[in-house]
Amino acid sequence: MKDFISIADLTPADAKHLIELARKVKKNPARYQSAFKGEKFGLIFEKPSTRTWVSFDVGISSMGGSAIYLGPDDIKLGVREEVRDVARVLDRYLAGVVLRTFAHETITEFQKYFGKAVINGLSDFEHPCQALADYLTVLEKFGSLKKPLLTFVGDGNNVLHSLVLLAAKLGGRIHYATPPKNEPSSVVINQARQIARKTGAQIQAFHDPLKAVRGADVIYTDVWISMGEEHLRKQKMKAFRGMQVNRKLLSATGKNTQVMHCLPAHRGEEITDDVMEGRQSIVFDQAENRLHAQKAVMLWLCKKV
After folding, report:
1. Does 222 participate in catalysis according to the annotation?
2. pLDDT tens, 75-104?
3. Which of 118, 119, 195, 258 lies 20 to 30 A from 106 at CA?
4. What does each C-alpha distance from 25 to 34, 61, 301 come to in angstroms?
5. 173 is catalytic
6. Which one of 161, 175, 290, 292 is the catalytic residue?
7. What are the chain's domains?
8. Which one of 100, 173, 261, 292 is the catalytic residue?
9. Is 290 an annotated catalytic residue?
10. Is 100 a catalytic residue?
11. CA torsion, points 257, 292, 224, 270, in degrees to nearest 10?
């Protein structure tokens, strides 16, 4: 593979290899400190960022390369200049590009005209780098990718799309609970179920979070109102009543369940402060693993390993 746009593009073997490679990179970072010596990457972001920007920048520099950040007001893809024109120009300058966009189509169009590695740092449809870091965290905490039951409670969004697809590729177990009008894409779920038939993965959908979390080893949540959805705040807050990750929900699992959140968190909305700060939270281990998973993706795409 040249690009990392969707979890769906990976084979099951690719998915397992990337997570194992991330473990190796995390354990022995010095081994890769010169992998990108003298090479420059572009970080093209239409949305503000903390983890994606910093983890990619640090990851690139720790492997001998450097990065240039191009924020929302710098290029204005498709507004100031056509996406295809920007892609062909930057192809002459850069070793690879990370894109963080609203429309998924912006990334797929850029990919067509950029001859080197293109990485989806987030789009409105998928967040594949996040999912890799999440399952790296699951492997570290439970020693298995298949046995732990991960339950996602919240919006049927880009994060859930990537999680379901990756669980399917890995032969894992995943439940998700969403409001009826906020379910994930049926295209993604059907695709994941087709993969699951071959890998043995278990995927179950719920509307009741109390039923979804029974027996869960991990409860995972994300913000209810994503960037660009601020105008939907009132209706979404109403729709997501009862979906909060709190002590009551944790107690319904019947286990010493771990809690994950991809951040940023709106404490008091999708998750309570005491759960975020509690002993069962592995949120910041999960955030750290963005760095190691993304280094693995870059090394793999650019054939440095």
Report:
1. yes
2. 888 788 999 999 999 999 999 999 999 999
3. 195
4. 13, 14, 15
5. no
6. 290
7. 7-127+290-301 (3.40.50.1370), 130-286 (3.40.50.1370)
8. 100
9. yes
10. yes
11. 30
